[in-house]
Every structure is written in structure tokens, then in C-alpha cells.
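Exercise 7. Given the encoded structure of a 351-residue chain, write a plausible sequence.
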């Protein structure tokens, strides 16, 4: 198969981790006889420095024309909260322009990493859940005002927005264990009450065999640690999903392990690890490339329909971990750790 993949390395550790994912993609292309055309495009803070725009026109065009987009990470102290042009704005614009409203963030525990999590083994063994985070609405995209003595961020959701994301969760639950947990703050927020009513109706009317339960976000934060095996598909709005997935990443041992897929109504998706640009370790070659490599696997699965190839990557990551390959974030205290490149090498040879 011939496919165009846009590569947005971004800032901080972004270029280091995407470089490893690119090597994996090239190896998959060779092994399985595909032609992947990988187009590296400027994005984020580095693009701001060069073009005064985090999402330059030609980058957006390249992404819109690609079959899938693989992103490293963006942001850093150089473009902090008070900077006039910010990388985060570019990321939100990219998500909106691509129409990728459904952010899938799977949390699966690698058996080899059971000891890497700060949570006890007995709690996390067998955890297999996936977040469906709404990605192009809510408080991230609402009207903002800023005055001298006051600032506001509006959170708005339409029925249609909740319907379409609930359908993504329903479909996923049908293929999994048939359980959706919808997370909100409906004891306080009007948008949450809308979410609760709409998601309830969609699952009941359109997904027989799928059950839906509703949970307040504060309780969900607790249950994620106390009883993470009880979750299958977690459906939630943009901000709650952002926060809860960082928390859930610690079940898997490290933020560096988790991939994500952002999907819309066509096949083209945006794939990124859930971690940030980690300015504190950027440029040192010690970041964990697994989240990005696993995101590349999701790209093959969801945008190119290459299930066998996706599984080959996932198996290679598991195998490397089973053989003891560890970057610093998942290495036992005091043990020596692999560099980003050496981790990539180990996964490549497992492949
Ligand atoms: C994420 C990130 C982004 C988000 C930031 C960088 C805007 O934290 O993908 O989880 O909040 O969505
Ligand atoms: Mn986040």
C-alpha cells in the first residue's frame, strides 16, 4: 500500500521520540512491502520561531492531504503562558481543522511493567481500559474573555457533539467488554447534565448489549486508582479527559508509555503520545519513545487499516520490555537505563 504520513516532530523531546517512530515505520514498510511517504513538517514552538505561526499554512495543507498525522509533542518554557503566540493554540487549531473530535487513549498494562507503576501490582494487574475523550469542544474551545480584574472561559457542548462522541464510545464498547462509564460533574454543571442525558439515550437506543453508567469526575479520579479493572470504555469531555488520562497513565507506569489516536468522520487521524514536550529532559536522548511508537501502530490500524502491521509493532514493544529494555522513566530505581535511540534499536530488532 502507498500512504502519505505527515510527521510533526514539534518541540522538546518531540523530535527525539518521533525519530524512533519514523525508524519503526520505515522498517514496517520494508518488512510488509508498503510505500510510506513520510513528510516532516514544522509545527509548534519551533514553527513559531521560524514562521511566527505554530501551524504554518503549508503544514496544515500537508496534514489535510495526508492519510495520517504523527505528532511528537509541543510547547516549552520559551513559549510560556504569557507568550504572544503559543504552541498549544496551534495544536488546538490542528485538531479542529482535522475534525478529530474523538480522542482514544488506551491504558493497557504491559505485564513486564507491573513493577514500574507506583500503584501496587494487585490493583493494576489485568487493567485494560480506553478513554474516549471529546477533543474539539468544551472549555478548550469556548469563548474567552480577559479583563484587568476578571477572566472567563466558557464551556459549551451541543447535543450533536455529545451524540457523535457517544457513538464512538458505543462502537468501541461493543468490540470490547460492553461497558461505558460516562464521567461528568452533573451535580454542578449544566453541560454535564446534557452529557448524561444524551449519552444515556444514544447507548440505550443504538447499542443493545452495551451498558452505560455515569460517574462524577471526582469519584472517577478515585476509582481509577482504587479499582481500575472495573473500567472498560471511559467516555468524557475534553478537560476531564485531559486530566484523568494523565492520572491513568501512572497505572501503566509512565506517561511515556501511552499512545493516543484522534479520529473524526473520515479515516485520517492525528496520533500522538499523551505526554508533553518534557523540556527538563529534552535534547539528552533519554526520553521514552514507546508512547510515540505505539501511536504509530494506532495510525496503521485506524487510518490505514493495517491491523497485522499495527500488532507487529505492539508485539515488538512488549517483547523489548519483556527482555528488560527500559528507559529511565520505567527503569527500577538505581538501575541503568537505555537511551531513546537504544530503546528504538531494541524495538526494531524485536520487530
Ligand atoms: C494533551 C495535552 C494538550 C491538551 C495540551 C498540550 C494543549 O495536554 O494532549 O493531553 O490539553 O489537550
Ligand atoms: Mn494532557
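Solution.
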Amino acid at each position: 500500500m502507498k500512504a502519505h504520513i505527515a510527521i510533526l516532530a514539534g518541540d522538546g523531546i518531540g523530535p527525539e521520540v518521533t525519530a524512533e517512530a519514523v525508524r519503526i515505520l520505515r522498517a514496517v514498510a520494508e518488512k510488509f512491502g508498503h510505500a510510506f511517504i513520510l513528510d516532516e513538517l514544522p509545527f509548534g514552538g519551533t514553527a513559531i520561531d521560524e514562521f511566527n505561526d505554530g501551524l504554518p499554512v503549508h503544514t496544515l495543507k500537508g496534514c489535510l492531504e495526508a492519510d495520517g498525522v504523527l505528532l511528537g509533542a509541543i510547547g516549552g518554557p520559551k513559549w510560556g503562558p504569557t507568550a504572544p503566540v503559543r504552541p498549544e493554540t496551534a495544536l488546538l487549531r490542528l485538531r479542529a481543522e482535522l475534525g478529530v473530535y474523538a480522542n482514544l487513549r488506551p491504558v493497557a498494562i504491559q505485564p513486564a511493567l507491573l513493577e514500574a507503576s507506583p500503584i501496587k501490582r494487585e490493583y493494576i494487574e489485568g487493567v485494560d481500559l480506553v478513554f474516549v475523550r471529546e477533543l474539539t469542544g468544551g472549555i478548550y474551545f469556548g469563548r474567552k474573555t480577559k479583563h484587568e480584574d476578571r477572566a472567563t472561559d466558557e464551556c459549551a457542548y451541543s447535543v450533536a457533539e455529545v451524540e457523535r462522541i457517544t457513538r464512538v464510545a458505543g462502537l468501541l464498547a461493543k468490540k470490547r467488554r460492553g461497558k461505558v462509564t460516562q464521567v461528568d460533574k452533573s451535580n454542578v454543571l449544566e453541560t454535564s447534565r446534557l452529557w448524561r442525558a444524551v449519552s444515556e439515550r444514544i447507548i440505550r437506543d443504538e447499542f443493545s448489549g452495551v451498558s452505560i453508567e455515569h460517574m462524577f469526575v471526582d469519584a472517577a479520579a478515585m476509582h481509577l486508582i482504587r479499582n481500575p479493572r472495573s473500567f472498560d470504555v471511559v467516555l468524557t469531555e475534553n478537560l476531564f479527559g485531559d486530566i484523568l488520562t494523565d492520572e491513568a497513565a501512572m497505572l501503566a507506569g509512565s506517561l511515556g508509555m501511552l499512545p493516543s489516536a484522534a479520529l473524526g468522520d473520515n479515516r485520517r487521524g492525528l496520533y500522538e503520545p499523551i505526554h508533553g514536550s518534557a523540556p527538563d529532559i529534552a535534547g539528552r536522548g533519554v526520553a521514552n519513545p514507546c508512547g510515540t511508537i505505539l501511536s504509530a501502530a494506532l495510525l496503521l490500524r485506524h487510518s490505514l487499516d493495517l491491523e497485522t502491521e499495527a500488532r507487529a509493532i505492539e508485539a515488538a514493544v512488549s517483547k523489548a520490555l519483556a527482555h528488560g529494555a527500559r528507559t529511565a522513566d520505567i527503569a527500577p530505581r538505581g538501575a541503568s537505563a537505555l537511551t531513546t535511540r537504544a530503546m528504538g534499536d531494541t524495538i526494531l530488532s524485536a520487530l
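Remark. The pocket of manganese (II) ion (ligand 2) is lined by residues 242, 246 (CB under 6 Å). Students should compare their own answers with the one above.
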